[in-house]
Structures are given as C-alpha cells and as structure tokens.
Amino acid sequence: MSFYMHLRAVPESETGDDHSSLTTFMRAAWEIHAEEYEAGLAESVNKDFAMVHEFYETAAGRPQGADGAWELPVFGGRVVRHPSEEQPPFALLCPTGVARAAAFLDGLRFDAFWDRAGTAFRAPFSAWDEADVKNVFFEHHSGLLAFYLRAAARGDAVIKAFWY
After folding, report:
1. Rounded distance, CA 10 to CA 126, Å?
2. CA-to-CA distance for 159 and 109, rounded, in angstroms?
3. How many CA atoms lie within 13 A of 112 on its CB side?
4. Between the CA atoms of 55, 59, 63 and 67, what dihedral angle is there, to the nearest 10 degrees?
5. DSSP output for 80-123
C-alpha cells in the first residue's frame, strides 16, 4: 500500500473551499503529477511525510521553536475535512503561510538541524546506516524547499492532499 502527501501550488483565487471541489482538482492534478512536478507546480513525499514533519518538529524544539513555522511545510494550513470524515482531509496553506514555510526551509541549515534532532529522533532508524537515513531526509527537505520557494515567489497558495 502506498500513501503520499501531494502538494500543488495554485493561485489563491483558484483554491476550492470544500472537500468535493478539492477532491476533483487534486485527483486531476495527481493524474498529471509528473508534468506538474517538472513545471514546478507540484511536489510529493511518498510515505515519509509524517516523519519529515516530526523531524522539523523535533529539531525546531517544539512547539514554539522556529516561531511555529516548522509545522507549515507538511501539515500546516486550514484543514478541509470530508463531510462524513470517510476520506483523508486536505490542507490549504495561504500565500502568507507558503512564504513563512519557504523562509523556514530556506533558513534551515540541514546538517545542524539533523544534529539538533538528536539521537531520540534517529533511534527508530538505528538498524540502517545513518548516512542513508540522513540522505532520505535531505532529499525530502530539498524537494520541499525548492517547491515552497517557487510557490512563494509566485505568491501562490498550496493545496495538500494525503492519498492512501
């Protein structure tokens, strides 16, 4: 079973405000994800998105660390739930939030942040080579950084879908 966090940059005026319209838009965007990724409009994190969130949270020294901006890249934004909560929710991050997420990610010095996350964060990965685990998180971070910088430069909002 695969699960993804799918991010799509979009002008704020084009964000839907209900679960149905967001489902329609994001399903269509998922069908052309590769093209939108190449165009710099989309990003996705396969299965590791909750751990990436935890990495930012732990290294920022939650909950107020980094002025709370650590929570924006993955789960931040206004939650839009399915009326019966049968499907995963969407999150909408407004352009101001996108700019804050981009600034947080851009200001993060990965090696220092990795070290600050500490051994407690890295303990579940002790069976793997730490350099490999660090590289996985670095790749996720680099992708999110590039995506958020582009979206912020355009003044876009970001829609987040969680596909299971």
Report:
1. 39
2. 26
3. 5
4. -110
5. E--TTS-S--EEEE-HHHHHHHHHHHHH--HHHHHHHHHHHHHG
Neighbouring-strand partners of residue 10:
157
Q: How long is the chain? A: 164
Core vs surface per residue 83-110: b (16+ CB within 10 A) or e? eeeeebbbbbbbbebbbbbbbbbeebee
**Separation of alpha carbons 88 and 152, rounded Å:** 26
pLDDT at 132: 94
Model-level pTM? 0.93
Contact 72, 32 (CB under 8 A): no
What is the separation of C-alpha 81 from the centre of its chain, rounded to a whole number of angstroms?
A: 18
pLDDT digits (tens, 9 = 90+) for 124-163: 888 999 999 999 999 999 999 999 999 999 999 999 999 8
Total Cβ atoms within 10 A of residue 126: 9
Comparing C-alpha atoms, which of 126, 131, 115, 138 is closest to residue 52? 138
Kindly tell me if the per-residue pLDDT of 1 is higher than 60.
Answer: no
